[in-house]
Design a protein that fits this description.
binds adenosine-5'-diphosphate, nucleotide-binding, Rossmann fold, 22% strand, 9-stranded mixed β-sheet
């Protein structure tokens, strides 16, 4: 952080967006994108105007998770019309360049694309823009926190020690960047056998709650390992858009965010 010049604050904040909330994680694969899409859908179901920006350059999964993969139109060649899915205004960095190009992007290209996502996309009036960050603590997180002065960040982790270890680094980064941590979300907290009802804690138990307490931030939700959540994400209709029990958990999370 120290070596980077302080960019102009607010330079990348879209004009009509009231709140920007970033969803980060220390590690990949802990469910950050799943939580981002479901939180966005749950907030939209609660009547809020919601945008979802997929800034996960290493694995942009929102087009698939939200079921919208077509390239966004740019009729004037200057601004981009975002997609809409499940009541959410959607844009993904993955839709900007052919997939195989993402691997060879250099820092300045990335920053250019991120800036474009925020300032050239016609987000319109939004109550909240959820930003699905790449995992870890790299340039995208740094630029976004400094230039778009986001309102707060949520950190997603599984209860596993290795995930928590990296989650702590993400929390520390947001602290250094003076981005308020809104809370932690424990994903894949438990698994209930659909046959016998036995509950097992595959990735451990209680670690994220203990971490939240230690940091003095709320534990916003504990979400189970759930086959329907995975199937829904893969199928392009987030579980929060359904009537499953997990959709209720996301509705409660959305309620907490609104309050
Ligand atoms: P990340 O964004 O942290 O890399 P993803 O949201 O892409 O993680 O999730 C990784 C994989 O795990 C996806 O296939 C997703 O469907 C699945 N997954 C995420 N959360 C859950 C959950 N609570 N139950 C079951 N599968 C999940």
């Amino acid at each position: 952080v120290g070596g980077h010049p302080k960019p102009q604050e607010g330079a990348m904040r879209p004009a009509g967006v009231k709140h920007i909330i970033a969803v980060g994680s220390g590690k990949g694969g802990v469910g950050k994108s799943t939580v981002s899409s479901n939180l966005a859908v749950a907030l939209a179901r609660a009547g809020r105007k919601v945008g979802l920006l997929d800034a996960d350059i290493y694995g942009p999964s929102q087009p698939r998770m939200m079921g919208q993969t077509k390239r966004p139109a740019s009729p004037d060649g200057k601004t981009i019309i975002p997609l809409t899915a499940h009541g959410v205004t959607l844009m993904s960095i993955g839709l900007m360049l052919p997939e195989e190009k993402a691997l060879i992007w250099r820092g300045p290209m990335l920053m250019g694309a991120l800036q474009q996502m925020l300032t050239q996309v016609q987000w319109g009036e939004l109550d909240v823009l959820i930003v699905d960050l790449p995992p870890g603590t790299g340039d995208v997180q740094l630029t976004l926190c400094q230039k778009s002065d986001i309102n707060g960040a949520i950190v997603v982790s599984t209860p596993q020690d290795v995930a928590l270890l990296d989650a702590r680094k993400a929390i520390d980064m947001f602290g250094t960047l003076k981005t308020p941590i809104l809370g932690l979300i424990e994903n894949m907290s438990s698994f209930t056998c659909p046959n016998c009802g036995h509950e097992s804690h595959i990735f451990g138990h209680g670690g994220v709650a203990a971490e939240a307490q230690k940091m003095g931030v709320p534990l916003l939700a504990s979400l189970p390992i759930d086959l329907d959540t995975r199937l829904a994400g893969d199928g392009g209709t987030p579980i929060a858009a359904t009537n499953s029990p997990v959709a209720m958990a996301y509705a409660q999370l959305a309620d907490r965010m609104i309050k």
